Amino acid sequence: MNTAERLVSAAAELLDAGGEAAVTLRAVAAAVGVSHNAPYKHFTSRDALLAEVAVADFTALTDNWAQIRTSPEKPAERLLSALDVLIRFSQDRPAHYHLLFASPEIAAQGGRLTDAANSALGAFSDIVEDCQAGAVLPASPGNTLAVVLFAATHGLIAAAASGRLRSESGIDTRSGMEFLIGLLHGR
Predict the structure, then answer these.
(1) Helices (DSSP H) in the chain: which residue ranges?
(2) Which of 34, 28, 36 is closest to 11 using CA atoms?
(3) Are 179 and 109 in contact (CB under 8 A)?
(4) Would you say residue 187 has pLDDT above 90?
(5) DSSP-based three-state secondary structure for 39
(6) What CA–CA distance (Å, rounded) separates 114 from 108?
(7) What's the pTM value of the predicted model, to 2 decimals?
């Protein structure tokens, strides 16, 4: 692993341990055992370093979704499995989830991050399109339905994380999405 990769890995660990505030270039340098100026040789700023963490996370989501798409499950089951990946990611790595989907200053980094985010959306959209082809979901222009399903999942994840989606409601993120997909399918 080269120095840049080690810096990204250390930033990811600091992000897990203490959120975005814990990720400073000085702290990352210390975690890797390099001088406090060394990160600047690889990244123009803290946000550029965090963008590379986000690239790695989007790439992992893309890979997971691509693998799910080739599974022998039926299209609706593949869609729920893809949503499960996102739900688990939000629960297991909340600071990373926030970095990907609620950090506009990181999203503004563009470049590789935009490409990685678009690849992830494409992989998720492919699963949605398979559901549309199998008449599990209605047709829609472009990847509109994929974006809406993703946004609905994100809303339920945020409601659950904030405590607004309580167990006494009988709905959690997955069951809420099962309900929505069922409505779209006409069940």
Answers:
(1) 3-18, 25-32, 46-69, 75-92, 94-101, 104-107, 112-133, 144-161, 173-185
(2) 28
(3) no
(4) no
(5) helix
(6) 9
(7) 0.94
Structure token pair of residue 19? 């959120």
Domains of the chain: 1-43 (1.10.10), 47-185 (1.10.357)
Q: For the beta carbon of residue 152, count every other beta carbon within 10 angstroms.
A: 16
Structure tokens at 62: 């893309």
Fill in the amino acid letter for 26. Answer: R
Place of tokens 């729920």: 80
Place of tokens 């702290």: 27
Percent of the chain at pLDDT > 90 equals 89
Work out the average pLDDT over 34-45: 94
Q: Which residues contact 6 (CB under 8 A, 6 or more apart)?
A: 32
Q: Tokens representing 81?
A: 């499995």
Length of the chain: 187
pLDDT of amino acid 162:
86
Tokens 């339905």 found at? 145
Q: In this structure, are residues 136 and 75 in contact, taking their beta carbons and an 8 Å threshold?
A: yes
